[in-house]
Design a protein that fits this description.
By secondary structure, this protein is an all-alpha fold. Helices cover 74% and strands 0% of the residues.
Length: 153
């Protein structure tokens, strides 16, 4: 879509939802049980990051992030920590599935698993920070100016 300038907000949202559903399916296959935890967290983070309607959420959502979250999200996730997180997010279920179903024991197989687990943990740190920040924003008291401006609507 980007290549032919055919992007839309709907297409961008659909892309994320399909990615999350695919990863959810991989978690189900990898764990032989309903793997809903990660997809539910990801869907909630998706809702939180896109609730402002801003298309630049990858930048604006992390402006005031703590150091670890900033390290993961810097340069729109194109950093060493960001790459580790994305790898864990996408490939940990596949690694778990391979570990259960094959005798994959090539040199470094367990190291790959450790790195993928580390990346997924980094992802959880970022996801829970986004959720925490969003809930704090929802619970913030409404100031008098906001109340007045809403009264005229």
């Amino acid at each position: 879509a980007r290549r032919w300038q055919q992007q839309s907000r709907f297409g961008a949202a659909l892309d994320v939802v399909v990615d999350i559903a695919q990863r959810g399916g991989m978690w189900v296959l990898a764990l032989n049980l309903p793997g809903f935890l990660f997809p539910l967290v990801e869907l909630n983070v998706f809702a939180c990051t896109h609730s402002s309607g801003s298309e630049s959420w990858k930048v604006t959502c992390f402006e005031d992030a703590p150091m670890l979250v900033a390290a993961v999200t810097s340069n729109v996730f194109k950093s060493p920590c960001g790459a580790l997180m994305v790898a864990g997010l996408h490939f940990l279920p596949l690694w778990l599935w391979l570990r259960q179903r094959t005798s994959a024991s090539f040199p470094g197989f367990n190291l790959v698993g450790f790195l993928l687990c580390s990346g997924r943990l980094l992802g959880l740190v970022v996801e829970f920070w986004v959720l925490k920040r969003h809930v704090e924003g929802l619970l913030r008291p409404i100031d008098a100016l906001t109340i007045r401006s809403c009264a005229h609507v």
